[in-house]
UniProtKB/TrEMBL annotation:
Limits of the MotA/TolQ/ExbB proton channel domain: 64-142
Name of the protein in its database record: MotA/TolQ/ExbB proton channel family protein
Key word Transport present: yes
Membrane topology designation: Multi-pass membrane protein
Compartmental location: Cell membrane; Membrane
Organism expressing this protein natively: Methylobacillus methanolivorans
């Protein structure tokens, strides 16, 4: 039984580094997505209205909203994973009289949580704004003769 638990512990501990890398990439993607949304607001929406192509706007809107929805949901979950993973070894270290290792684990845990929340918040805001913008564009296109 101990071998299985040790194997599980090592496998889960191994996940920490990839999860943190994905979280950092998620923040970068979220910032890029916010920049794209600003450009879209300044220039893209007007072009969409002028195109008159409702189907193209719906396809583009669906694609971009799905991307923002994924950004708003997945990074916070990964942040939670990266919060919990280092706490196990940190608490074990505390039991062995090593509070410094616990402090490092807690710091890593909180930093990962913040990364996940930053990406999630940006994704949520971008998604909500885009949803409103696309609805306005589609209403304008549908009201045109």
């Amino acid at each position: 039984m101990s071998f299985e638990l040790d194997s599980l512990h090592h496998a889960i501990t191994w996940l920490l580094k990839p999860v943190i890398i994905i979280l950092a990439l998620s923040v970068i993607i979220a910032v890029l997505e916010a920049g794209l949304a600003v450009g879209e607001r300044l220039f893209g929406l007007k072009a969409m209205r002028n195109s008159g192509n409702t189907d193209a706007v719906v396809r583009l809107a669906r694609h971009r909203l799905e991307r923002a929805d994924l950004l708003s949901r997945i990074p916070p979950m990964l942040g939670l994973m990266a919060t919990i993973i280092p706490l196990g070894p940190g608490l074990a270290a505390l039991g062995q009289g090593n509070p410094a290792q616990l402090a490092q684990a807690v710091t890593t845990a909180f930093d990962a949580t913040v990364l996940g929340l930053i990406a999630g918040i940006i994704g949520l805001v971008v998604g909500k704004l885009r949803r409103r913008w696309y609805e306005d564009v589609l209403e304008t296109l549908e009201s045109q003769p």
